[in-house]
Amino acid sequence: FWQDELYISTANKYTILRDWDVNLSVDYQWNTLDATLTNFACPTRHSLLAALATAYRWQRLKAQASILGTFVFDHSKIISGSDYLGRRTNKFSKFTPAVFVSYQPIEDRDFNLRAFYKRIFRMPTFNDLYYTDIGNADLKPEYATQYNVGLQHRWNFDRTIFKSFNVTADAYYNEVTDKIIAVPKGTGQYRWMMMNIGEVHITGVDVTAQLSMLLPYDIAINGQLNYTYQTAQDYSDPTDCLDEAGTYKGQIAYIPWHSGSTILNAAWRGIGLNYSFIYVGERYHNSSNIPANYEQPWYTHDFSASYAFNVGKVGLKATLEVNNLLNQQYEVIMNYPMPGRNYKLILKVDI
Description:
Elements: E1 2-17, E2 20-34, E3 44-58, E4 61-80, E5 83-103, E6 110-122, H1 126-130, E7 142-156, E8 162-184, E9 192-215, E10 219-234, E11 250-251, E12 258-268, E13 271-280, E14 283-284, E15 294-295, E16 298-311, E17 314-323, E18 331-333, E19 336-337, E20 342-350
């Protein structure tokens, strides 16, 4: 396969008032895909994206609004057997709005409330459409409507080893039409294809907490916790609910209800130590949430150590990574075992 891409972008900003800006941006993208395959479609895509956005700030209130126009023109060969029958042209156009609002209730506190509404339009990529076995030329564009409310609070400290503590929390609800996903093809798990799920409703909560510390001798320590709870339910076929194997309102493939991570790093005079823990909870590999489709939770521990130094005017950084530190046996995707404990040595040179 060969892919070519050309991208051109331009943007202009105009200040109407001191606290009111308007932006206009236009992007053009040209893509082609070719392959050494018999009767390949050889698609070409022209994409034009035009966005008009405005931002306004009044005291402790910030607001943004935008409208994005997406215009896509796809051309591909029509071939029947060995006969070339011409070219097919598909046209897609969509206007998608977005609104963002944030408010700082207390003037001298780094505390913000935020909310947004967003409509998204996503075209399937050439990989989704045409790659051998995986591709599905009948894929439809994906549409999503997103609603989000959240908050952010940051505390800064003086005369203590604790420097800052930051917390964010967001709750969201998404409605997705023709969601593009990868699913196993046939009875085996070694061949995959792309497909649309007619309607998916997603509800979730994201929470993060970050802590920064500065110990004696200039030892800096940073830690971060992330947690996500998410339901992503298949609402495509209300009639498919007559038995326990039904897919209606089932959690879609490979989306866990619970997931999270922990990151810790320490730095001192060019020496860096990093530790991360990733957890992904129970899932199913099909919208039919029955025991036969159940996937076990998995987790990994990763560690790295680095040292940055100079040799003359050349900056060097050596890093040793130990991934899957405890040699856990796990599968992100059914029948695709992930590597056990593995090592990586990286040397970075800045000239």
